[in-house]
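Consider today's protein:

***
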Amino acid sequence: MTTGLEQTENQVLEQTENTEVLSKDEDSAKKLLDKLEQEVHAECQNRAMKEWLYATNLTSENRKAAAESAVSYSRFWKNTWDSIRKYDWRSFKDPIIQRQFKLLSVLGMSILPEEKLRKYNAVKQAMESTYSVAKICSYQERSRCNLTLEPGKPTVLFVEVVSSIAIISLSVLNNVMSHTELSEIFKQSHDPEELKYYWTQWRDLSGKKMRNNFTDMVAIMDLAAKMNNFSDAAEYDVRSYNSPTFRDDIEKIWQQMKPFYEQLHAYVRFKLRKYYGESIVPKKRPIPAHLLGNMWAQTWENVYDLVIPYPNKSAIDVTTKMVEKKLRAHDLAKMAEDFFISLDLSPMPPEFWNGSILEKPIDREIICHARDGANPGFHEAIGDLISISVQTPQHLHAIGLLETVEHDYEADINYLLRTALTKIAFLPYGYLMDLWRWDVYTGKTSSDDLNCNWWKLREKYQGVNPPVQRSEDDFDPGSKFHVASNVAYIRYFVSMILQFQFHESLCIAAGEMHPVFGQGKPLYKCDIYKSKEAGEKLGAMLQMGASRPWEDAMEAITGQRTMDAKAMLDYFDPLMKWLANQNKKNGEFVGWLPSDDVSCIKTPHHASMPVPTGDLNEATLPSTSTTEPPQSPSYSSTTNVLNSSYSLHNGCCIITWYVFTA
C-alpha cells in the first residue's frame, strides 16, 4: 500500500517516461543545437541577472523576481528537454554533438512540476537569507548585536579566473578593513571562552534555524534526481565526474593523504596544548574545533602564529606592504589579470570592470559567496593553481610585496607549514561535507541522525570535536553556506588534488624542473609567471571548456587521466619529513582516540521520525523558526545545477560571481 505522497511522486515520474520513436537524424540534431545556442544565451543571461540583483540587494521584490525567473528559466529548459529527448543521441557519430546532447538530456531541477520547483526555490532562498542576514551579539557587549560572519568589505568578483590572487586577497583585505566581524574574531582571538561563545551563537542563528527547510528541500531533491533517471541524489550529485566509482576514488585519494594529515594534526595539537593547556586540548584526543582560527575549522592558517616552527625567521607579511601601498580590491583584480596576461592569456573583458561589485556595500545586505560553475572541481583548480605560484616568496618579491627572500631550510619549512595549514588541513573537511550529504541522500544517515552523524564524520576524518555538546535539535552542517545554498562541496577537495597535478605539469613546461630526473627547482619554489609555454598548455586545456570529458582536458595538461595525490605529496615532501621527526621528538601521539565526552546526543524528540505526508507544493517562503523539529524520512538530494553546457564566454559566465573562499 502506498501513501498519497508516494502516489503523487509515482505519477510525476511516469510523466517523464518517453515512449516515442527516437530520431537518428544527426543533421537535424545539429540544426537544433545551433538554434539553441542563441536562445540559451539570452535565457541564461536574463536568469543570471535576476539572481545577481537579488544576491546584491536582498529585498522581497528582488526575491520574488528571482523566484519567478527561476520558474520561467526552468520552463524554457523543460521545453528544450522535450526537443532533446526526441533524438537517439547515443547513436550519433559526432562525439561533440553526442556530448552536447548528453549534457542537455539531464534537465536537473527544471524537470520538477512548477509547484514543486517553486517550493524548492522558496526553501533555498529562505536558507540563503537566514545564513546571509544572521547577526551575533558581541561577547564583550551583549547589547550590540550587529556582528556578521564576513568582514565588512570582502572582495566579490564576477569571473572565477581572478581567484588567482586568492592567497593574497582574502587574508589581506580582512586585515585592511579591520572590521571586528566573526571571521576576524576567529582569526585574531585566542580566548577559548570568547571563541566558544561565537562558535555556538553562529550555529544557533544560522544552521539551527534552517533544519526544517533542509529536510523539505532534500525531499524535493530526491524526486528531482529520480525524475532525471538517477537512482538517488548522491548519484546525480557526482554525475559530472563521469565515473561510477568516483566516490570510492575520492576515498582512496583521502587514504593516500591521510598519513600526512595525521602528522600535521598531531603537530598542531601539540602546539595548541602548549598554549592552552591540557585541560582544553587533551593529549591523544580530537582538537576542539573552535581553536583552529576558523568558524568551521576548515583551514588553520590563522593559528600559524601559535604553531610556527621557526619564529625567529622573518615572516612573509604582505599585509603591511599592501597597506603601505594603499592597495584596494580593484588593484588586486588588476594584479590577478596581470598574471594571466603574463602567460599570454586574454585580459578581462570590459563587462567585468564595468559591472563587478568589488567591495561589499554598506547600505544593504548581499550574499557574498561563491556560486556554481560548469565543471565541478576543475574550474576551482584553475584559480588555485595560479595561487600556488602567486604565493611563493620569490613571486611576492618580484611584484614588490616582499622586501627580501630567505633561501634556507628553516624559512622553507615555515613557508610549507603555512601553506599546509590551508591546503592539507582543508582536505578532510572538503571531503566529509559531501560525504555527509551523500549519506543523507542515500538514506544511510536517517533524519533523526543528521547532526550526530555530522559530528561522527568530523571526528573520524578531521579529528575535531565541538566545544559544547550538540544534539539533534541543532543542525551544524547548515552553519556552512554550501549547505544553506545547496552547493556541492567535493569540488574543493578535487581542486586541491588537481591543482598540484596541474602545477607540476606547467612547471615542467616552464622549464622550472625536469620531468624525469627532478632537476631544477623543488616544486614548492616553482613560479610559472611570464611563462608563455605554461600559458600555451593551460590555454589549450581551457579552450576545451565542457566540450570534452574532463579526463581529456586533464590528459592535455598532465598526460594523466586520473586524479593522483603524488604531486601534492611531492610538493610538501620536506615538511612531511620534518613533521614526522618533530612528532617523534615531542613524543606526540599521531592520530586521535575517541573523545572522552559524547559530542552529540539524540534528543527524545528525534528518537523516531515519521515519513511526511504533507503537501510540498506550497510556494510561500518557508518559516525559519526552530520551534518545531523536522519531520522527514531518509531521503535523497542533489546540487542546484540546472545544466552545464555553456561556453566560457557566454552571457551566464560574465555575470557569475565569486569570492575567494571555499
Notes: The mean pLDDT is 82. The longest strand covers residues 287-288.
